[in-house]
Amino acid sequence: MKFTLGPIMVGAAVPFRGEEMSAIRKEPAAGTVEIGPLGLAGDEQADKQFHGGLEMALHHYPHDHYQHWRWEIGDHPLLDHPGAFGENVSTDGLTETEVWIGDRFRLGTALVEISQGRQPCWKIDHKFARSGMTARVMKTARAGWFYRVIEPGRVAAGDPLELVERGHEGWDVARVFRAIFHKPTPTAELVGVARLERLAREWRERALEKAVLQEGKAHRRQDRG
Questions:
Q1: Is 70 exceeded by the pLDDT of residue 225?
Q2: Strand 160-165, strand 104-107: pairing
Q3: Which of 44, 115, 199, 215 makes the best surface tag, with the fewest CB within 10 Å?
Q4: Can you name the residues that pair with 100 across neighbouring β-strands?
Q5: CA angle (52 as vertex; 172, 54 as ends), nearest 5
Q6: Does 20 score more than 70 pLDDT?
Q7: CA–CA separation, 61 and 194 (whole Å)
Q8: Is the bond preceding 184 in cis, omega lying within 30 degrees of 0?
Q9: Would you list the domain boundaries of the chain?
Q10: What gap in Å lies between CA 164 and CA 177, rounded to an integer?
Q11: What's the pLDDT score for residue 51?
Q12: Helix or strand or coil: residue 140?
């Protein structure tokens, strides 16, 4: 599989809501951009506890979803330009159901690997000035995904994004996202997620914790019965 990258988007951390900072507002970078272990040169994260880091170095959001959002919310001005969801890179023709956890891509000259889906936060609601947007992203699993950087490199708009190695067969990003964030989820499915070696550790731990909680609730119901 080979795709063409849209604009390469970077953003600085700036006041977003009152004094709260955010770098969700991205702008197209000019020319070639360096990709290091923590992502694109010039791209920032305000809250490093929940954003950025080795497992969330680059955010990919399918441009295909923009049309779906127009059907749902109408012609919002943010949907007229890339970066509406705070993404760094985007493509057409590649969505969460078609990529697996651990898939490796040549992105420009860098080598990147899908590490996890993207868990959206309240900032999407605030950016769109529309209550319920984040909830809709969660419900539809149209959240995009993150890459970890295996080999640093450089990238520019129009460069190819080429699949070079498949990851965990059948464990597409949407499937894993729904297992962790949707209910109900079979315990066996959660155990399967927790065993995905290329999935970010935090998400593996979340899956295992959810499985344990579900089993505990099931046992308590049996005891009461």
A1: no
A2: antiparallel
A3: 215
A4: 172
A5: 70
A6: yes
A7: 24
A8: yes
A9: 2-169
A10: 23
A11: 72
A12: helix
